[in-house]
Specification:
Order of helices and strands of chain A: HHHHHHHHHHH
Strand order of the largest sheet of chain B: 1-2-3
Distance between the termini of chain A: 42 Å
Oligomer: heterodimer
Helix content of chain A: 55-70%
Distance between the termini of chain B: 49 Å
Radius of gyration of chain A: 20 Å
Structural class of chain B: alpha+beta
Strand content of chain A: under 5%
Largest sheet of chain B: 3 strands, antiparallel
Structural class of chain A: mainly alpha
Number of strands of chain B: 8
Number of helices of chain A: 11
Order of helices and strands of chain B: EEEHHHHHEEHHHHHHEEEHHHH
Mean pLDDT of chain A: 83
Largest interface: A-B, 37 and 40 residues
Shape of chain A: globular
Number of strands of chain A: 0
Low-confidence stretches of chain A: none
Chain lengths: 323, 381
């Protein structure tokens, strides 16, 4: 019990630390893409203390609650979003024996708690009592309803192949990474990445927070620490989805390693490495596309992604049945 | 304390105020949108937030003093503003301009056209892509190229955005010796890069999706509203003042007027991309054939000498990057004008906005507004 609590604390801290540095890496990455330098002065070399400076700034900022806002919901919404994002981690094993909970319905749990995020977003949009926030909340709702289904259907392909919802079993079942399976492995990996991008509200699917149309969307009225919670939740969710993607499709913590030294260290290394591949994929897409319009976005999901992922799942089931 | 909650009435339509402080209204435009869900039912643009009374200033300042004000009108292409005004005053006062000065004017107004279109391309993509996404990438690339052009302005006149290059009767500065090398190198880079950007954007399905068939402006409507420039040419009207009634020395250069028939956002995009190439062509010809001679006529030697045109009126229009920029000057023989009216292209182009926006989605507002390319210094004056 004490061990689990200890591990949970480590999980949270490591996750938040990685999230801090994802923002830094993203800014550096974008800067490279833009022919700029990016953060540089806060902590030489290359501004590696910038994330901490950002957090400090956000913590010290004045917390403003709009006059017309629904105070209780307004205050609770960022917490719901943040907790929803953070709660996804217990079912993600970082090494064979390092996990908080080995739930037998791990994947269902993951998607259930990550749905809390859109709940919080909707509350935030409603409680802000601003039209921009409200429109953005509508959009977020519509988007998540359409993209959660392809995401889960594509995640079900590894489940069918492995015959278990337990994340550890899924990793163990991967003789070759599922992404390298015959055609349906590839297809479901691609659908997972697309739907994952949409889940995270990232360009080109960032319609709920389209800042050129809806200013800053559902967090338009938020400032200071509450904004920081939204921001952190977004990145925690990205991290969780990347880890999940690497577990489901890329073999999680499995990889080649020599037979000396502690095994779990190599496993953590492989998991982080694969997570970073997923993250870089997300970043590269993010910084090179323009935004899709909301109606096309939903069309795309229901007309293409949904049937394809359904058919794909059907194929995978047939494969499982006969081979 | 129990605070009373204001809850949205369950009505069909909501009214959304876009602007005047909004990241993508290109300045201080306020658009009052009546929305049904995400669909736009009614539009009312509200302008005037940047009104500085430039036209009135034209009645109190002398002709020479008024010139630097005009740089601030359409601040993205300052040289074309001066160009129209000096042409109008010269026509009114009957001043001849030496050929070298005419060529220098053409070179720099075309350079500012390229710079202006680069800003447009960057901000247009920024509107489509968002400040935290792919839009920023194009935006920063475009500003990098624009910087090269502004460097030439700085080297020539000492300032980047408001060069105050022209004076009545000629130009204030002669070209510096190595300018042809600078311009050629810069323009070669710019041409290579804009081809690259165009290729990247045209082959991007998301970009095509956002622009094609959006905000269709029929030919007749465009002409009725008095649209001009790329907005008009994007609707299939091949009308360019540089060709239609060549001013200065534009009749000496060989260039095309691009026009496309679609009338949508995508065609306006293509017109502007092609215009940049044509401008490069004009500058190359002008820099090759730059004649020798004085850069200003003998009449207005120093600023101290006030120009007093004979009583009369004149209207001269030039093709600014945004369209027909006209100056109507009424003189009653005094050293300052009786009335200066500026026919701003952005104003006329913007007036078509309600027509274009109706029936579209909120996301299209920024795409359509960006494709019109208004500059609010120009709209409000």
């Amino acid at each position: 019990m004490v061990g689990i609590i200890f591990l949970t604390i480590i999980y949270i801290f490591v996750a938040l630390f990685i999230v801090l540095y994802i923002t830094w890496i993203e800014r550096k990455f974008a800067a490279k893409l833009h022919n700029r330098v990016g953060p540089y002065y806060v902590g030489r070399p290359h501004g590696f203390l910038q994330p901490f400076a950002d957090v400090l700034k956000l913590l010290l900022k004045e917390d403003i609650i709009p006059e017309q806002a629904d105070r209780k919901i307004f205050n609770i919404a960022p917490i719901i979003v943040f907790i929803g994002a953070l709660l996804t981690f217990p079912v993600l094993p970082v090494a064979k024996n390092i996990y908080i909970s080995d739930l037998s319905v791990g994947l269902i749990y993951f998607f259930a708690v990550s749905s809390l995020i859109v709940f919080g977003v909707f509350l935030a949009g409603w409680a802000s009592n601003s039209k921009y926030a409200l429109l953005s909340a509508f959009r977020a709702g519509a988007q998540v309803v359409s993209y959660e289904i392809p995401l889960i259907l594509s995640a079900l392909v590894p489940v069918v192949l492995a015959g278990s919802l337990r994340t550890n079993d899924i990793i163990q079942a991967q003789k070759v990474p599922f992404a390298l399976y015959p055609i349906f492995g590839w297809v479901s990996f691609i659908i997972f990445v697309i739907a994952g991008l949409a889940e995270e509200n990232k360009v080109p699917f960032d319609v709920p927070e389209a800042e050129s149309e809806l200013v800053a969307a559902y967090n338009v009225e938020y400032s200071g620490i509450k904004f920081a919670l939204f921001y952190a939740a977004e990145y925690v969710h990205i991290l969780a989805l990347s880890v999940l993607g690497s577990i489901l499709f890329l073999g999680g913590y499995r990889g080649f390693y020599p037979h000396f030294g502690p095994e779990w260290l190599y496993q953590i290394f492989w998991l982080l490495f694969k997570t970073f591949i997923m993250l870089t994929l997300f970043l590269l897409i993010r910084w090179s596309f323009v935004r899709i319009r909301i109606d096309r976005l939903i069309n795309f999901s229901w007309k293409y992604l949904f049937p394809i992922s359904l058919f794909n799942l059907f194929l995978a089931s047939l494969w499982k049945l006969f081979f | 304390m129990e605070r009373e909650l204001k809850i949205y009435e369950p009505e069909e339509e909501i009214i959304l105020n876009m602007g005047p402080q909004h990241p993508s209204t290109h300045g201080v435009l306020r658009i009052i949108l009546k929305l049904s869900g995400e669909k736009i039912v009614d539009v009312k643009p509200d302008i005037g937030y940047l009104h500085r009374g430039v036209e009135k200033l034209g009645e109190t300042y002398t002709y020479v003093q008024f010139l630097p004000m005009l740089d601030r009108n359409d601040y993205l292409s300052a040289t074309t503003n001066e160009f129209g005004y000096v042409l109008a005053v010269e026509k009114l006062a009957g001043i001849m301009v030496p050929e070298r000065a005419q060529y220098i004017r053409v070179i720099f107004s075309e350079l500012s056209r390229i710079a202006s279109h680069l800003v447009w391309l960057g901000t247009f993509c920024l509107d489509l892509g968002g400040a935290l996404g792919g839009g920023t990438t194009v935006f920063l690339y475009c500003f990098r190229e624009r910087e090269r052009i502004l460097d030439i302005f700085e080297k020539m006149t000492g300032s980047r955005l408001h060069p105050h290059l022209m004076q009545i009767g000629g130009v204030r500065y002669d070209v510096y010796p190595s300018i042809d090398k600078d311009i050629k190198e810069t323009l070669q880079t710019v041409e290579k890069r804009i081809n690259e950007y165009e290729e990247m954007l045209i082959n991007n399905p998301v970009f095509i999706d956002r622009t094609k068939g959006i905000g269709i402006l029929p030919k007749e409507v465009a002409m009725e509203y008095g649209c001009s420039g790329p907005v008009l040419r994007g609707s299939g009207v091949k009308f360019d003042l540089r060709k239609a009634c060549p001013y200065s020395s534009y009749d000496k250069f060989d260039f095309d007027v691009p026009s496309f028939d679609g009338g949508d956002v995508f065609d306006r995009f293509r017109v502007r991309m092609e215009e940049m190439r044509q401008s490069i062509k004009i500058i190359m010809q002008a820099i090759e054939g730059l004649p020798q001679g004085p850069i200003s006529s003998q009449m207005p030697v120093k600023v101290k000498v006030a120009i007093k045109p004979k009583p009369g009126e004149v209207y001269v229009a030039v093709e600014s990057p945004r369209g027909e920029l006209g100056y109507y000057i009424y003189s009653d023989g005094k050293p300052f004008a009786y009335r200066v009216k500026i026919r701003a292209p952005s104003f006329s182009n913007l007036s078509v906005l309600p027509f274009l926006l109706k029936g579209h989605l909120v996301a299209d507002v920024v795409a359509i507004l960006g494709s019109i390319d208004p500059v609010f210094g120009d709209v409000d004056r």
